[in-house]
Design a protein that fits this description.
mainly alpha; 97 residues
Length: 97
């Protein structure tokens, strides 16, 4: 999720949890609306049989279907992050010799 760590790190832990939930819900809503619009586009393309204006005349439902798949996976990833328990972040540790 997008956040400004400079401000976020200075807030109390309770506010962190609230921000994570609020912005997670906003992200899910955005992803769901985007998914719905791409589903509508994909179904319209399937119905019309639209093809690319190229030599191969590729059916446009193929790339649009891959776009839809990617957006669905993004929505699931955001949902997983929202539902996952909040774990404290550990600082990166270099390779130990």
């Amino acid at each position: 999720m997008l956040r400004v760590d400079l401000i976020y790190d200075r807030l109390p832990q309770r506010v962190h949890k609230l921000f994570n939930v609020v912005f997670g819900l906003i992200s899910i809503l955005f992803c769901a609306m985007l998914d719905w619009q791409v589903v509508r586009l994909w179904l319209r393309t399937l119905d019309n049989g639209t093809r690319a204006n190229s030599v191969m005349a590729t059916p446009l439902w193929l790339p649009q279907g891959l776009l839809l798949l990617g957006l669905i996976l993004l929505t699931l990833a955001v949902l997983r992050r929202l539902l996952a328990p909040v774990e404290p972040q550990r600082p990166d540790v270099g390779i130990q010799a």
